[in-house]
Design brief:
This protein is α/β, with parallel strands linked by helices. It has one domain: Thiolase/Chalcone synthase (Peroxisomal Thiolase, Chain A, domain 1, 3-Layer(aba) Sandwich), CATH 3.40.47. The chain contains 13 helices and 12 strands. The protein has helices at residues 11-19, 48-55, 65-77, 99-111, 118-122, 126-137, 152-165, 182-190, 223-229, 257-270, 288-302, 313-316, 323-337, and strands spanning 2-4, 26-27, 40-41, 88-93, 142-146, 171-178, 214-221, 236-244, 279-281, 309-310, 369-376, 380-387. It has a 5-stranded mixed beta sheet, sandwiched between helices. It has a 5-stranded mixed beta sheet with strand order 8-12-11-9-10, sandwiched between helices. Helix 10 (257-270) packs across helix 11 (288-302). The longest helix is centred in the C-terminal third of the chain and has 15 residues, at 288-302.
Length: 389
């Protein structure tokens, strides 16, 4: 698995920050904006040029920030993998795509129509980053891009698992990447769901999300391929499900119907009991609507036997299309390190549900099954179960 986000440029750095309870949220710095130095944001602390240096690239013309972040994480995920045997696919998710390059083009075009470079527009579409990452890794058998808002990269893991189960592919690099842009920041601010303080998931005083950026990818392989290569798996993708409640363009249903169905079906597919779930990595965006809706769904499903849960977004911010993959990596870490991550900034439970998340790092645990939730705009809800092998 590979990751780059506000708390680290690789899995080791990210885990250390989680363990030491160090958040990556700070004031908006990299992007020129009226919110610079004011709005809390979880930025990756590398310029595009620094990312290029990290990748060993001399020329980044035609590469947008979303692609650069994705390349860092994807390369980590496939270290030591031989693609010469079997069929390999690439599935990447994003919501922003190359918006950052389009914004630059637009400003130059308004100033002088001869200054706008069309190559910047060519990197705008979401599939551009997927194609460039696949080309960099040498993956040619299959590639696809998924953009279902905040559930996007969990859906790449689900789709990748199905492609392997059906025998179409032997391995899949699955995940997502998203960068911060003015359009994203201004858009979410227009929806009035950005908090002026660092996000506080599942807290009574929660008042909106904190945006972040980053990328994460996991390498999925069939059991047969593992037997041939002798590679040892980190954990197993044992269950997954997607459900759409179609309640509202941006809001979750008050009853948490889609979230309930996604979690229930994912656990059923894993072939385990509710009591087998050791930890829930919640979607937990800290918006008033989402946390209440997700909490209602969790209580409806688990009743009075709710497992430890937390949202890790106070560490990374909400990385949108990359969020599910970022939290998939954290879920795998919880299993391999036998730990549960804290829900930072929590003080008081939401009165309607009374749920209290894990508020400190806990290790030395036997974490066997982790349920990870990613719920997107339009009610596109996805849950995946990762299990100890």
């Amino acid at each position: 698995m590979g990751i780059i986000c506000a708390i680290g440029k690789d899995p080791g750095e990210a885990f250390t920050a989680l363990k030491e309870e160090k958040s990556g949220i700070g004031k908006l710095n990299r992007i020129s904006s009226i919110y610079q130095g004011i709005l809390p944001i979880a930025e990756v602390p590398f310029s595009n040029e620094a990312l290029a240096s990290l990748l060993g690239l001399d020329d980044i013309r035609g590469l947008n920030r979303t692609t650069l972040l994705g390349l860092v994480a994807a390369r980590q995920a496939v270290v030591g993998t031989d693609f010469s045997t079997g069929k390999t696919g690439m599935l990447s998710a994003t919501t922003v795509g190359g918006m950052e390059r389009s914004e630059g083009f637009y400003e130059k075009f308004l100033e002088d129509q001869k200054k706008g470079l069309l190559r910047d527009i060519f990197t705008h579409d979401c599939a551009d980053s997927t194609d460039r990452i696949a080309e960099d890794l040498g993956i040619h058998d299959f590639s696809g891009t998924i953009s279902t808002a905040c559930s996007s990269s969990v859906n790449t893991i689900m789709f990748g698992a199905e492609l392997i189960r059906s025998g179409r592919l032997d391995r899949v690099v699955a995940g997502g990447t998203d960068s911060l842009t003015k359009f994203t920041i201004n858009g979410f601010n227009t929806l009035m769901i950005l908090d002026k303080n660092p996000c506080r998931p599942f807290d009574e005083s929660r008042n909106g999300l904190t945006l972040g950026e980053g990328a994460a990818f996991v390498l999925l392989e069939s059991e047969e391929m593992l037997q041939k290569t002798g590679r040892k798996p980190i954990c197993e993708v044992s269950g997954y499900a997607n459900a759409n409640d179609a309640y509202h363009q941006t809001a979750s249903s008050p009853e948490g119907t889609g979230a309930f169905l996604a979690m229930k079906k994912a656990i059923e597919k894993a072939g385990i009991d509710l009591s087998d779930i050791s930890y829930i990595n919640a979607h937990g965006t800290a918006t008033i609507n989402n946390d209440l809706s997700e909490g209602i769904a969790v209580k409806r499903l688990f009743e009075d036997r709710i497992p430890p849960f937390s949202s890790t977004k106070p560490f990374t911010g909400h990385t949108l299309g990359a969020a599910g993959a970022v939290e998939a990596v954290f879920s795998c870490m919880a299993i391999t390190h036998g730990c549960i991550f804290p829900n930072l900034n929590f003080s008081n439970p939401i009165p309607e549900i009374g749920l209290i998340p894990a508020i400190q790092f806990m290790d030395g645990l036997n974490v066997r099954h982790v349920l990870s939730n990613s719920f997107g705009f339009g009610g596109n809800n996805s849950s995946v179960v990762f299990s100890k092998v």
